[in-house]
Design brief:
alpha+beta; Vanillyl-alcohol Oxidase, Chain A, domain 3; about 550 residues; seven-stranded antiparallel sheet; homodimer
């Protein structure tokens, strides 16, 4: 056993933590109405790991000895639990497969290198011995970027980067911090915070995802409006490749031909193992506020988000949920927290008197950071836009609550799965002019898929990550599966949603990578010559296809 | 003759326009002091084009007929002036070669396609007939990106994109405009301005550079702090490649693997011919102000620029000249404009009384855009930083003057060259912590080069394009050449400066591309594996090396 912690083998997060609804009185009726599920159904028990049949490791003793010589005793592991934990990420497809013991191919060995020199030796070993390497950060991926190809005959090693978690250096004057790539979100922010800095990157997976993983999948955090996506945050890189170690020095902007930095971003291990990154960091803001607003309907909310993006205001978060996600949000409140139910009831009565349809209300969060006067000024600018669109302010309460529970949603998925419902997310980005039609097309596509399956299904959405020319729409969907072939049912729904993205002018993913899950839509998204250019990069750096083959371009 | 206008064959800009010093009394003494040149020396006459010996076109009659069938009669030109105009860009190396009639290899034909379909036919023709294609926008490049390889035996065609200049569409709600790639700066802004929009991209070459050229070289404009570099502005692309036409749809941010969009940016024609781009555009700002400030010295000025970048302020321009460039700026003022000399004299007396060394003063311009209240707020935030560093405001006068003459500097280079002095620019970017040592190293490297040459030389600098983690330093250098081998002398100076960039933690260029001029430093900048990745892209898209071979990676 190493000291690198992992999530539950069968689900999200740490052992002993899960979603509970007993203190959330509105939850059970909400779920019954949404997908026809009775949450008081006793949960299916999760199997004991000892009942899982795991294919034997194909690693020879000689190879094990050679790898142990590189990483040290106890850091080249072949036991079943280690190998299963490193087989999948945490998509609903992954969870369904784990619960069904569908493990046709698992890594043959899990390696825990201690430093870049060891990673270099591992890559050399893999090339010389024609083995396959799959880098592993926090294991939170939901796009199939981590899984071994089922037909792969060669030895497969998962490289767990968990021991590479040091803050190497802060260049305080430049606002640049250099970290080893395996550092997880909370550890990274703690090391920075101790010295008064923040990177400001908070994806939903934050608690269980790593810097290297964010870079390898083009992650985006909730505060990207201010701090940028990981592509903007990442300035320098070190990447171990078969031909040597790639070094991109931290330069604010460069004119050095096709961007190699931007080729590593989103490369999912196919262009090498990211060992180190130099990232932009900011002084912890003097003030930080997340304010809640209520819009009369989704249409006016979307226009308001657009108008904020074209105004002089520069908030750190712009986020608004559609009426369904707003309903979900209200249903997961504890009876005694948040906007207390009395105040809420009072406000709702007022809004109803104004002619609002309470089922159409959309909850928005806008974040502000900086000096007190800057925050005040930003709030005032956003306030003008908000009021113009008839919205009302509900203050800091909902924002504080959102901040507290923002990383908890994945636990809910396991709760639902325990009771027979499959849930996952799909997100996209598109120009402002295309967002509303895209939204409607996706809703219709999901409903069509549910009808095809003859099941009750749900889809809800929020807008986040506003940019000048567009934004991200993030959909969460759920349905009660048939218990026979839930993966096939999931494929029908997921496929309908992804196709609607592309057909409506959106991309296959704004910040969840391609992996194997989204690979079928890559050519439709970036055109065949675009796929050819990416294939050219892979062929140049990894002619032996030793680096995470089958990801991004699955047709090879 | 087509209706596509070109610059002078021997120098910058349009016929009949040049730099004059007679109305700038301080200019002659300044130049005498800086490089020991007497500007009253009568200028060397520029040769009549008829005296230039131009190698014959290698294009066969059959090929000429085939190409004329593609682009139409009068648009496949083989006359000498056309071919010489398309041989080089406008670096000092280019100007020296043109004036010395050094034309060892010129394009064999200049093609003016009318649309993307014709470009596709040209690319197919080139691949089938193993010819070389070099795309040409405004011809302002100073990195050798346009020149035919001297040893190239195959037919070389320059593709002048000047006829592709239409605004195809504005998506007003998304702030996205789609243009044909050959459109020049003024034409682009005029088409946008007529509908109330601006792209806000104003590089020094603006009047004679094209959208496609900006994209192919990773250009940056003066107002990049607000509008972004061209890499951020460009959202969608169409690129004709040998394997088909690459289409990148306009998406605000995507997670589709290694970025193909960012591979085309800076590709200098090696990954195809850019025919169309969708770019971010903004409503013309309600108010725009450029305010001048004076700093006591360069050191305090750099700290102030850093502090503005870490403050809540978001100006559209941050720019400060070192003492030498400030002196140059004052020396090129007309006697009767700008800060009137009386006011200047009065201010200088005050500053001298405060203990300032007038030879160390640094002139800064900060730009503000937005609503009147936003501009006022930004000015006030910047003002606090400025004052903290002891600087004084000199108001709108110098800024207005800067706005007027910002595109005139290249004409001065021809004026100096007429009189025996060679001048050019080199620029870089680095983290904030490295800028001052880099600046000192570059000054020392240039002075070392001048000493080695035994000539009087000059180098001056400004900071521009502030980013969170660093900025661009832009150097202009000049020396009186020996009249024997000025190119060899230039190489000594240029090489010393570029090497100092890399050794001091800077990049080979922030926004002038690699071309052939900066290619010797590419490996030191992005490491050998980085060069290998770029080579892999070229090999994948252009296995026949038909697309602008020898650029970016010259060692092939």
């Amino acid at each position: 056993m190493t000291d690198v912690a992992h999530m539950k083998w069968w689900g999200w997060g740490v052992e002993g933590v899960g979603f509970h609804h007993e203190d959330k009185p509105a939850f059970a009726p909400f779920v019954r109405k949404a997908v026809g599920l009775d949450v008081s159904t006793p949960p299916a028990p999760v199997d004991d790991f000892s009942s899982v049949e795991v294919p034997a490791s194909r690693l020879s003793d000689d190879a094990h000895t050679a790898l142990t010589a590189i990483v040290g005793a106890g850091y080249a592991l072949t036991d079943d639990l280690e190998r299963v934990v490193h087989t999948y990420g945490k998509s609903i497809r992954d969870l369904l497969r784990l619960r069904a013991h569908l493990l046709p191919r698992v890594p043959d060995v899990v390696l825990y290198p201690a430093d870049e020199a060891q990673v270099e030796l591992i890559v050399s070993w893999a090339v010389e011995n024609d083995a396959v390497l799959i880098p592993f950060g926090g294991g939170s991926n939901i796009s199939g970027s981590l899984e071994p190809p089922v037909a792969e005959e060669r030895v497969i090693a998962s490289i767990d980067m968990g021991r590479l978690r040091k803050l190497i250096e802060i260049d305080e004057y430049s606002g640049l911090a250099t970290f080893q790539a395996g550092v997880l979100g909370p550890d990274l922010e703690e090391q920075l915070g101790a010295r008064g800095w923040t990177m400001g990157h908070y994806p939903d997976s934050f608690t269980h995802s790593s810097l290297g993983g964010w870079i390898a999948t083009r992650s985006s955090g909730m505060q990207s409006d201010k701090y940028g996506d990981i592509a903007e945050i990442t300035k320098g890189l070190r990447v171990v490749q078969p031909g040597g170690t790639l070094v991109i020095r931290p330069i604010p902007n460069a004119s050095t031909g096709p961007s190699v930095r931007e080729a590593i971003l989103g490369s999912e291990g196919r262009l090498g193992i990211i060992t180190e990154a130099t990232v932009q960091v900011h002084r912890l803001p003097e003030r930080r506020e997340v304010i809640g607003y209520l819009f009369k309907d989704w249409e006016s909310a979307l226009v308001a988000m657009h108008d904020i993006s074209t105004s002089d205001a520069a908030p750190s978060i712009t986020r608004v949920s559609d009426a369904r996600e707003t309903g979900f949000s209200f249903a997961t409140r504890k009876a005694s927290t948040g906007i207390s139910s009395k105040v809420t009831a009072g406000l709702m009565t007022v809004l109803e008197k104004r002619g609002w349809d309470l089922d159409e209300i959309c909850l928005s969060f806008i974040g502000y950071e900086g000096s007190p006067s800057h925050v005040a000024r930003q709030k005032s600018m956003v306030g003008s836009v908000i009021r113009k669109h008839g919205a009302v302010t509900v203050g800091k309460g909902p924002g504080a609550l959102y901040d507290q529970k923002k990383f908890d949603t994945p636990y809910l998925r396991d709760f639902l799965l325990d009771r027979g419902a499959a849930a996952d997310v799909s997100e996209t980005a598109a120009p402002w002019s295309k967002l509303l039609p895209l939204y409607r097309n996706v809703r219709a596509a999901a409903d069509g898929a549910y009808a095809q399956l003859g099941t009750e299904g749900w889809i809800m959405c929020h807008l986040s990550h506003s940019a000048h020319s567009g934004a991200c729409l993030y959909f969460t969907f759920a349905f009660v599966h048939d218990g026979v072939d839930p993966i096939a049912q999931y494929d029908v729904v997921k496929s309908a949603i992804q196709s609607a993205f592309i057909e409506s002018g959106g991309t296959l993913s704004h910040h969840h990578a391609v992996g194997t899950e989204h690979a079928p839509w890559l050519e439709a998204d970036i055109s065949a010559p675009g796929v050819g250019l990416i294939q050219g990069m892979f062929d140049a750096i990894d002619p032996g296809k030793n680096l995470n083959p089958g990801k991004i371009i699955s047709s090879e």
